[in-house]
Structures are given as structure tokens and as C-alpha cells.
Amino acid sequence: MAWDVRLDHDSYVSAREEFSWGLPDDYNIAYDCLRKHDRTDRPALYQHDPGGDHETYTFDDLDDQSNQLAHALAELGVDRGDRVGVVVPQKPANPLTHFACWKLGAVSLPLSVLFGVDALQHRLDDSGATVVVADESVLGTVQAAAADCPDLEYVVAVDADDPEDAHDFAALRQGYPRSMSLAETNPETPAIIMYTSGSTGPPKGVLHGHGVWVGHCPAFYMYFERAVDESVFWTPADWAWIGALGDLVFPAWHYGRPVVGYPMEGFDAEQAFRIAEEHGVTDTFLPPTAIRMMMTVEDPTQQYDLDLKAVCSGGEPLTPEILGWADDTLDGVAVNELYGQTEANLLVTNCRKWFSAQAGSMGKPVPGHDVAVVDPETGERRADGEVGMLAVRRDTGDPAVFKQYWNRPERTAAATVTDPEGVDWHLTEDLGYRDEDGYLWFKARDDDVIITSGYRVGPGEVESAILEHDDVEQAGVAGVPDETRNEIIKAFIQPVAGVEGDDELRQEVRDLVRDSLAEYEYPREVDFVEELPTTTTGKIQRRKLREEEG
Hints:
By secondary structure, this protein is an alpha/beta fold. Among the domains are: 28-185, Rossmann fold (3-Layer(aba) Sandwich), CATH 3.40.50; 450-549, GMP Synthetase, Chain A, domain 3. 28% of the residues lie in helices and 24% in strands. Strand 21 and strand 22 form a beta hairpin. Helix 2 packs antiparallel against helix 3 (59-75) and helix 3 crosses helix 4 (93-104). The longest helix has 17 residues, at 59-75. It is globular, with a radius of gyration of 23 Å.
């Protein structure tokens, strides 16, 4: 059945009033993205290799190859509900593994190639993953993490020459049928676990059902400003994050449109323009940091023949300078801010055809999502202009709202409040307010999460990594303002008695965090202090660290 989310309405008000989800009872992501289209022989993925090789995959190609992989995974013992890790950059093996899992009724687990051993070990072990598919660039790191994951039985290596103690991805699927029947699923069937940044303790697994990517489509339709029938999509964002998979990749395939894959090692602004020119990219998701880097390229519309029509961006507020640059330098390309989180993404955005963007505002609630500013204790709605907690209604069948925190029912309950009318709301832990025109404005974070270059980083995880150093007695981590990255990570370190903080220790701490967590999580600034501000129970007061920096 060819079924798409469409917002062909004359006004925002009518779109809100008339929208309904209407997902089929037998909904399966793989069928939606690969099999339902009238022309499955059309391009789905333009794979652009940094070495110069290019390859085009049709929807039929992705379907056939993921069928083979699904048969192979089943032979390894992957069954309904089992978890499979995916540690692969922007390569075909990434979506092929996700699709294979969903065809089996299994649960995929996207993980960043930037993660170090500790970060991977926690997520693979906590999820109980039985198989992990790993790119050759991170194979050693994944295998080191796997050593402490008792449930993990198999490692599958992508693009590795004669991998040791691992199956070869290409060889694994050879000989299996190129067709298969899909497992019985519905919009609520578990499909994917994505981990939070770990802002309040260890990172939590966020379980979503098969309907999750359709839940992103109304916003996708809005922030890209028009019908998507002739569009080509690309993002430099890591295909491990909901901001890449949900904001662009899978919604594009829901609409039967091609995506460009390019495994970048670090963002290159001029390369971004070259990719856009070569593949006729019309729509892109760019973190604000990437946009600011692209703003340094001189006369891009003169240097490159661009088809760019719309940019969406999120993770931090867009500044008036970014909007002005898009209008003036990119000849009026729309740039729309969006808001969401791993638990419930793309809840708020802008759309020029319905209302003008307000610099600094997140926009208005997307049709299909009931978003409000509430009292986090009672769930009662706050009056316009009054700061409260941003929340989304979770008892209406909204497919973008997560099902539960993996193995943490108490955390799921703690993030839910029931209002006086019996309505359940998911609390985002972000503070904001609604103005009289219906725009939502971000005010502050209720937790200590750091947003750096579009990545959400939990300070607790970074502090734990720093404390592994023998010369560190105590550590506190906070985000400090930065013109390019929005915030940078700064560590305040109390050395053990008899140790003096110096440049050597500073660099050792940076290397330790970079190796154990991720490239973007290391502290760019390190200060050594005699003691850290703490509460009476010994908890570090990160708020005071930020205030001292302010």
C-alpha cells in the first residue's frame, strides 16, 4: 500500500486540526521505506566514497541486500526482539543492518564510530546486544568493548581485510535468498534503541517502535518547505544519531527520495558545497556549527552550482546572523530550526508557507504532536509567557514518543506526569515558554547537558572518564559559551595530594576522554583547582562552575 504523510493544507491551523496518523495495523519500517513505492528501481542511495568511488543503490538493491543480511543474521541466531549493534559510518552497511533487523522483528542499536571502548561497552552490555556490525575503522575498539559484554556472541566486520575473530559483512550474506517475508509487526513493535547523552547518570537506552520514523515525517514536510517529490537529501551528521536518521535519512526513504552517503572524517565546509553541487542536493540537515563553518566560504553561489532549497537545523538556537546569511548569500534558502530529543524528536519547527520564523524561537508544535509548557510537578499548563517544562502528550498514539527507557521503568515513570484531567505528559527536562502567537521559546536546560557542535554531552560520563586518571582526585565538567560550537566542554580538576596540575596532565586527561568516550566529548579547556563546589551530600555543583565562568 502506497501511503505517505502529507500536509497539503492551506494553513497551519487546518493542518493541526485535520491531521491524523492513520498508520496501518501491520506497519513495518522496511516495507514503508523500501517496498511500497511505485518505482522501486529508482535511486535510494548515492554512495560517495572519499576515495573517489561512487555507487548508486536503488530501493530494490537495499531491499534485496537487506533480505540476504536478514537471513544471515537469523542463521546466527538473531530472533524477534534481539538487539543488534550498528557501529558504521555513512556506508550502505549501516541502513542495510537496520532494515535487516526490522524485517526480522529484531531491534537495531545505532552507535557512533566516534565512541571509545567504555562508551561502546556500556551501550552494548546494557542493551544485551547479541551481534554487533562494526566498520573496519573501529573494529579493534569494538572488539575490545565486546570482551566485557557477556551477551555478545558475534562481531561482523565491514570493509575489513581478512578480519580476525569476526565475520566478514559482504561474505556473510552471500548465498542467501534475495527475498523474504517480513515479520509481523505494528507501529508499537520494538524497533530501535538509541542512547541518551547521559546527562544525569549513565546513558539510558530509549526504546522506540516501528512507527518512530513516520512520527518524524510531519516536521520533515514542514522544515523542508514543500512537496518532496523531486528532492535529494544529504546530511553530514553521524548516521548513529536521531538527528541524522530521524531528521533526514529514513523520512526521505518514506517519501521514496534519494539520500547521499559520504563518510566524512570531520566536517569540511568546502567539501559540503562540492557534495551539494555534484549530487544536486536540494535539502539538508546541518548542525548550527556546520552552518557557521560554511559561512566562512566566500561567494558559494558563485563557486558552486547549487540546487539547495531548504536547510533544517537543531541542537542549539539559530542566530539572526545564520538566517541573514541564508537569505543574502544563499539567495533566500529557507533555514528552519527544529526541536526534539532522543525520547521524542521533531516536536516543534518552522515553516515559511504557514508562518515566519522568529530568530531564537524553536517555532510552533508540529501537527500530530501535542506539545505544551507545563508545571513538572502537576502537569498543569503554564500561561503564555510563563516559564515551565516543555512536554509532549504520550497517551495519544504519537509514534514519535518513545515507549520506555530500556530496563529502567523507574526512569520512565519519573519522566511522566499526569495532569489533573488524567492526561499523561512526557517531560523533556527542557525549560521554555509559549508566547501569545503560539511560538515556543527555549529558556534553559533543567539538567546539566552540554550542547557542543550539535552534540548533546552528559557531563557525568566525561567526569567518570577523567576520574580514571590516577592523578585526579575529583573532577567537574560544565559547558562554557563558545562562538563557533555554542558551548565547549571545560573540566575543573582537583589533582590528588602531591600532584601539581600542568600541561602534561592536562593533555593526558584530554587523551583519556577522547580515547574512552568520543572525539567530541574531550574537554577543550582544563582548569586545575584546589577544591570543587559541592552540596552537603558531596554532589558537584555544576551550576556554580558555570556561574564562575560567566
